[in-house]
Amino acid sequence: MYTWGMPRASRKKLSKETDIELRENFSSLISSLKYSKDVDQFFQDFLTKEENLMLSKRLMLHLLLENNYKGVEIQSILGVSEETVRVHKNNWEKGGHIYKKIINKISNGRKIKLFLKALDKKLKPLELVLSSKINMKARAKFLSGDYD
Predict the structure, then answer these.
(1) pLDDT tens digit string along 53-79?
(2) Which site among 25, 53, 77, 125 is 20 to 30 Å from 19 CA-CA?
(3) What is the phi/psi pair of residue 96, to 5°?
(4) In terms of pTM, does the model score above 0.85?
């Protein structure tokens, strides 16, 4: 299995003014896109496959944290390391009011709720395995194949 390398920005520093102007222009451009198909097409053309995957995984990691998923579950779902989960959990916890509001809004969307419900069903065997070390009922349930 090939794992994507983490894309990096150029190490050459920009002036503070240029940095601010670039960020403002980027935000303005993104906020001008009105339809999800336009946003999707823009990012498909604009980002590399690696960047697109990285950003998608990062957002999903934060949404999973928002929905109280355990680190080991996030690792299993997204194929990321324990360190990646730790770093982003720290970022998620330190996020400002606007960030928290946006993540919460996305998290409560219908599509995400349906996705998380399907994930929960897939994660049930993992949950039973994790709890089977100390819980005989969980061990028996896992061994019987009864994951509901």
Answers:
(1) 999 999 999 999 999 999 988 998 898
(2) 53
(3) -75, 175
(4) no
